[in-house]
Amino acid sequence: MYRLLIVDDEPAIVDGLVQHFQHVESLELDVCKAYSPLEALAIVKKTKIDLVISDIRMPGKSGLQLADDILFYWPACRIILLTGYSEFDYVYSAIQKNIDNYILKTEGIETIVSAVLAAIDKLDQANQMHAALEQAKQQLTVAEPHLKKQFFEALLLGEKALDLWQAPYFAGLAMKLSSTDQVMMIVGRMDRYDHVPTTYMDKLKLHLSIQDVLRQQLPPHFYEEAAVHDGSLLVWFIQPAEDAGMLKNGEGITQWEDISEYLKGMLEPVQDQCRHALNADVSFAISRSAVEWDGAAAEFERLKSSMKKCSLFGQPMSIIHLGDMDDVLKAERPHPAAELSTGMFNKQLDALQRSLEAGDEPAAAKLTSELYAHVEMNVSSNSLIGMERYYQFVLVIITQMTQVRPSDVQEAEEAWTLDLNASKEQLLELVHKLCAQKKEQQNKSEHLIIERIHRFIAEHLGRDLSLARIAEAVYFNPSYLSRFYKQLTGRTLSDYMNATRADAAQHMLEETQMKVNEIALRLGFESPSYFTAFFRKMTGSTPQEFRESVLLRRDRKENRSM
Fold first, then answer.
1. How remote is the C-alpha of 269 from its chain's centroid?
2. Do the Cβ atoms of 191 and 307 come closer than 8 Å?
3. Other CB atoms closer than 10 Å to residue 78's CB: what's the count?
């Protein structure tokens, strides 16, 4: 939606253009109006303006001078100038200032509409070009590390690899790795550091240094990419170069297990260098063999789990190879039906939180049942992980309780039990109550907002009632407010404002002795003739005809009562 400002010292022209553009359904415009350059500048200084239609000759400041002021605040604004005079000096100045169009008022409304459509087309093109430039900028070297970090974070959270490789957001990344080959993974964790990094920059510097150490030790016939997950774990993705013939068998098949053993041996000098150069002890876990890209998230969970189990023994500077681990330390492979990576589990928790906040009971109940089933499976295979996930799951619901607390608190508190056979139905019941109350709150809130909008319109009928001004009063984004209002009420704000003005006009014509031009001014119409045209369109009669019909009905009623 674009915002159009119409400026002219002739109220009839301003009101007529406002009325016309508000009823052009093919254009989604928020129309503002000003009857002087000073009034226009007051709007421009606090509200983004995309299009301006301005008279070129006005008291105090010309349209050309006003254009300079507007472009100072909103350089991308498109400006159309109107004049009643065909003067070469004005046309020449307008061309020099890159004004979109210079139109004689005698050319009519269709010419002005065509100029507005052309200006909107230019705005659309400029926005598309801006989006293309922004995408290009993202591919610059400065943005690349950040994009790679997001790419690998999403991968480790369980996103589909093919979707990530094909996403326009990551298009053009200078990735060393192949999307079609398998990949070897290494996870690193800092055990000790002489000077514990307390700031973000300290941790970042240390992580980058550890990555550099491993990169220097890695022979040139390997490609690698590195990422930092959750601010603490370092993750490497490694593939052999295309010309690494020594790493393949006679049939050209990559010997991944041999590569894994080699990389395991390489990690020893990496640890030694980290200790001597960085005063840091670092532990590593390495895959037994390569995995497909879609298996990276599950392999990452196994590597993390192995490191956690090893840390229980307090052993620093570990090198954990999944193929060498004994039964005590071996990372358990969950049952296929129960396999749900931490990333995917967290995504489902986020989805549950969003559905509870939205009061979407079907989605919340479905997610609650699915998460509960996963927790049960985790408890049966690994009680510690199961309990950890159960409490994460329950915490999401507790957080919502602090915002919408059920009336029967005692019953709700019974749901917080680790007796998993007994609590599922209680949790589902609690989700039902939370969603019901959330919906009730949302409905009340929405109706309160509509009431505030209607009250503001009623109190400001004779003043600025642009979408931007109403949105400011109720703390909304103007474009969103327009959609929000129509979705809730089934009609546009413009329709409501026109109906409210028409009702107010009828009331004043019927109940007061105010003159028609006084009523017009009271309702924000600077031009009585435009008010008359508006009233006829809304009611089918002129203000004078309506008043006379009211008086006639009263006379008849009085005559019947005599």
1. 46
2. no
3. 25
The whole-angstrom separation of Cα 464 and Cα 253 is 74
Q: What mean pLDDT value characterizes the chain?
A: 82
CA angle 37, 43, 45 (to 5 degrees): 100
- Summarised one tens digit per residue, pLDDT across range 81-91 is 888 766 655 55
What mean pLDDT is predicted for residues 287-295? 92
Q: How far apart (Å, rounded) are the C-alpha atoms in residues 64 and 90?
A: 8
- On whether the CB atoms of residues 190 and 282 are closer than 8 A, the answer is yes
Which 8-state DSSP code applies to residue 191?
E
What is the distance between the alpha carbons of residues 123 and 126, in angstroms, rounded to a whole number? Answer: 5
pTM: 0.51
DSSP string, 394-420: HHHHHHHHHHS--S-HHHHHTT--S-H
The one-letter amino acid at 353: Q
Tabulate helix, strand, coil % of the chain (nearest 5): 60, 10, 30
Half-sphere exposure at residue 376, Cβ-oriented, CA atoms within 13 angstroms: 13
Encode pLDDT of 96-114 as tens digits. Answer: 556 778 788 888 888 898 8
Q: 193, 213 in Cβ contact below 8 A?
A: no
Q: What is the dihedral sign for C-alpha 191, 192, 198, 201?
A: negative
Q: What is the distance between the alpha carbons of residues 77 and 51, in angstroms, rounded to a whole number?
A: 6
The average pLDDT across 476-505 equals 88
Using alpha carbons only, give the angle 182, 186, 190 rounded to the nearest 5 degrees: 165
Question: Using CA atoms, how far apart are residues 301 and 307, in angstroms rounded to an integer?
Answer: 10
